[in-house]
Design a protein that fits this description.
TIM Barrel, 8-stranded parallel barrel, 27% helix, binds 1-deoxynojirimycin, GH, maltose alpha-D-glucosyltransferase activity
Length: 553
C-alpha cells in the first residue's frame, strides 16, 4: 500500500451499510453483509471505501442525525463487527474513510437532551440558543420547500435553538473549545479503530460563526488546520475529504495556502458544469470551471464525482444553464428537489444509454483529482421516484435476480429494491453482469484498472488542448516525464478534430490505452481524429515504453 499521499491516486467508492448487503436477514444491511462483499469491491479495483453514517441514530436524515458518536447502530451490528470489517479492509489493502457529521447532532442525542432540560447543564452551551426568535430565522434553510426555518422553539428549554438543517438536527456550538475537544476525541476514537480518515459533512457550516446576533456568518478557517493536525498526529497518513460546496475563489481557503487545512475537497463547481456540458454538448463552462479550480497546493486534491447520495445540486449554474440541465436530465417536477437540483440516479438520467454512461464515467475517471463512485452506478442502477426526497436514489444494491435482488432474505427490506422495468433487479444485477465480459460492471473494472495506471491524472498538471469544437474536450496531463492525452466528444454526432499535442517524448505516436487504434501525426504535426458520438479516447504519449519510464510516487 502506498503511504502518505495515497489519496492522490485512489479510487473511492461510497456506500451506505444499511442498503448494501443484509447478512442476518432482518431487511437491513449490516457490517457482516458488507464484509462478505469486500472481495467484490476489491475485484472492482476500488482502493478506498467511504461509508455513510452508521452510528446510532433515529434515522430521520438517513443517519446524518447522530445520537451517539462512539458506537455502531445495533441495526448494522456491533463495534466488534466494525473492527472485524476494518481489519478485513486492511487485509485487502483497501482504505476506509467514514462520514464525520459534527455540524449538528440528533435532537435525541443525550447532549441535547441534557442541554434542553437544564440551563445550568454543561451541555447547554454546546448548542446555539436564543430567547427571542431571531429576525433572520426564515433565511438560510438548506432544504427549502421541506424545511421551514433555521430557529425552532423548544418548549423544554424555553428558548429557540439554531439548526442549519432539519429541526431535529440542532447545530453544535462548534466555536466552543469544549465542543471542539470532544469532536477531536470522536476522530481519535475512529482512527484507533482503523479508519484512514473522514468525509467531513457540511464543512462551511461547521466553521461558521453561529448565534442570534450573527447576521453575516464568518468562516473560522483555523479550525480546519486544527482538525488536520489532530488526525495527522494520530495517524500520519490520515486524510480529510471536505464537503464544501463553495465558489472557486473561496475553495483555496479550505485547502489552505500552504496545503495545511483540508486534504481533499469535493469539486462541486466542476460537477455542476459537467452535467451542463453533457446536457448541452458544450464544454466551455466546464473548461472555465476546470481552470478556475486548477491552482491548488501540491498535497491538496479534488474529489470528483458524478452523482452522490444527495440531489444533483445545480445552484451554481446560471438560470439558462440550469434550465437546460433540468430539461434534459430532470424535466418532470417530481425529478427535481429543493428548487435547485435533480434527485435521480445517473443511469436513468442518461436513459440507460451505454454510450453515454461510458462517456460520463470516462470523464469522471479522467478529471483532475480522485474519482468518487456511488455504489450501484458500476452496474447502472436506477431510481424509485415514488420514494420521498433523496431516498429515491438510495435503494438497496442489486446483487442478483433472487428475490429483493439478493440484498436480503427478509420480505421487508429497509427500502424497496427496484423491481420490474429497465432498471429492475431482474435485469440489472451484479451477478448477471459478472458473467458477461461486455457488461458495464466489467467495463468499469477495466477502466478503474487503467485509471490506476495513469497516475498523471491524480498527481500531474493538466492543460486544455484546443479542439476547435465546444463539444470536444481534450486534456493533457504531465507528471514525471509521462503524459496522457484524454479526449471526449459530448455530442451525439461524430466530430473531426486536429489536435496539436505539444512536446512529445521519443516518439510522436499517441498510443491508445483502450483499443488498438493508435494515432500518428500528419504532415502538419497534428493528430487528425474522428471521435465518434459520445466517444472517448485515452492516449499515452510517445510509445509503449511508459512502464519502463514510470517512476513510483
Ligand atoms: C450533507 C449530507 O450529504 C446530507 O445527506 C445531509 O442531509 C446533510 N449534510 C446534513 O447532515
Amino acid at each position: 500500500m502506498i503511504k502518505d499521499l495515497w489519496y492522490k491516486n485512489a479510487v473511492i467508492y461510497n456506500l451506505a451499510v444499511g442498503t448494501f448487503m443484509d447478512a442476518d436477514g432482518d431487511g437491513i444491511g449490516d457490517f457482516q453483509g458488507l464484509q462478505r462483499r469486500l472481495d467484490y469491491l476489491h475485484g472492482l479495483g476500488v482502493t478506498c471505501l467511504w461509508l455513510g453514517p452508521f452510528q446510532p441514530s433515529p434515522m430521520k436524515d438517513d443517519g446524518y442525525d447522530i445520537a451517539d458518536y462512539y458506537n455502531v447502530d445495533p441495526r448494522y451490528g456491533t463495534l466488534g463487527d466494525f473492527v472485524e470489517f476494518s481489519h478485513a479492509c486492511k487485509q485487502r489493502g483497501i482504505r476506509l474513510i467514514i462520514d464525520l457529521v459534527i455540524n449538528h447532532t440528533s435532537d435525541q442525542h443525550p447532549w441535547f437532551q441534557a442541554a434542553r432540560r437544564d440551563p445550568n447543564s454543561k451541555y447547554r452551551n454546546w448548542y446555539v440558543w436564543s430567547d427571542k426568535k431571531p429576525s433572520n430565522a426564515d433565511e438560510g434553510m438548506v432544504f427549502p420547500g421541506v424545511q421551514k426555518t433555521t430557529w425552532t422553539w423548544d418548549k423544554e428549554a424555553e428558548a429557540y435553538y439554531f439548526h442549519r438543517f432539519y429541526e431535529f438536527q440542532p447545530d453544535l456550538n462548534t466555536s466552543n473549545p469544549e465542543v471542539q475537544a470532544e469532536l477531536l476525541k470522536v476522530m481519535g476514537f475512529w482512527i484507533e479503530l482503523g479508519v484512514s480518515g473522514f468525509r467531513m459533512d457540511a464543512v462551511p457550516f461547521i466553521i461558521s460563526t453561529k448565534g442570534p446576533d450573527v447576521k453575516k456568518p464568518k468562516e473560522q478557517f483555523d479550525m480546519l488546520r486544527m482538525f488536520r493536525e489532530f488526525v495527522q498526529w494520530r495517524c500520519g497518513d490520515a486524510m480529510i475529504l471536505a464537503e464544501a460546496n463553495v465558489l472557486p475563489d473561496t475553495d483555496l481557503e479550505y485547502f489552505g495556502d500552504d496545503g495545511d487545512r483540508m486534504h481533499m475537497v469535493f469539486n462541486f463547481q466542476v460537477n455542476q458544469n459537467l452535467f451542463y456540458a453533457m446536457a448541452a454538448a458544450d464544454t466551455r463552462p466546464l473548461v472555465k470551471a476546470l481552470k478556475a479550480t486548477k491552482p491548488r497546493p501540491a498535497t491538496a486534491q479534488w474529489g470528483q464525482f458524478l452523482r452522490n447520495h444527495d440531489e444533483l445540486d445545480l445552484g451554481r449554474l446560471d438560470d439558462e444553464q440550469r434550465k437546460r440541465v433540468f430539461e434534459v436530465f430532470g424535466p418532470d417536477k417530481d425529478m427535481q428537489l429543493y428548487d435547485r437540483g435533480i434527485r435521480r440516479r445517473l443511469a436513468p438520467m442518461l436513459h440507460g444509454d451505454r454510450r453515454r454512461l461510458e462517456l460520463a464515467y470516462s470523464l469522471l475517471f479522467t478529471l483532475p483529482g480522485t474519482p468518487v463512485i456511488r455504489y450501484g452506478d458500476e452496474i447502472g442502477m436506477g431510481d424509485d421516484l415514488s420514494l420521498p426526497e433523496r431516498n429515491c436514489a438510495r435503494t438497496p444494491m442489486q446483487w442478483s435476480d433472487e428475490p429483493h435482488g439478493g440484498f436480503t432474505k427478509s420480505d421487508k427490506p429497509i427500502l424497496p429494491v427496484i423491481s420490474g422495468g429497465v432498471f429492475g433487479y431482474e435485469r440489472i444485477n451484479a451477478a448477471r453482469q459478472r458473467r458477461d465480459p461486455a457488461a458495464l460492471l466489467n467495463w468499469t473494472e477495466r477502466m478503474i484498472r487503467m485509471r490506476k495506471e495513469c497516475p498523471e491524472i491524480g498527481w500531474g498538471d493538466f492543460e486544455i488542448l484546443p479542439t476547435g469544437s465546444p463539444a470536444v474536450l481534450a486534456m493533457r496531463y504531465d507528471w514525471k516525464n509521462n503524459s496522457v492525452v484524454i479526449i471526449h466528444n459530448l455530442d451525439d454526432k461524430p466530430k473531426e478534430i486536429a489536435l496539436a499535442v505539444g512536446g512529445v517524448g521519443e516518439s510522436d505516436r499517441l498510443v491508445n490505452l483502450l483499443t488498438e487504434d493508435h494515432s500518428d501525426p500528419g504532415d502538419d504535426g497534428k493528430h487528425h481524429l474522428v471521435i465518434e458520438a459520445y466517444g472517448y479516447r485515452w492516449y499515452r504519449e510517445g510509445g509503449l515504453d511508459y512502464l519502463l519510464r514510470r517512476t513510483e510516487s
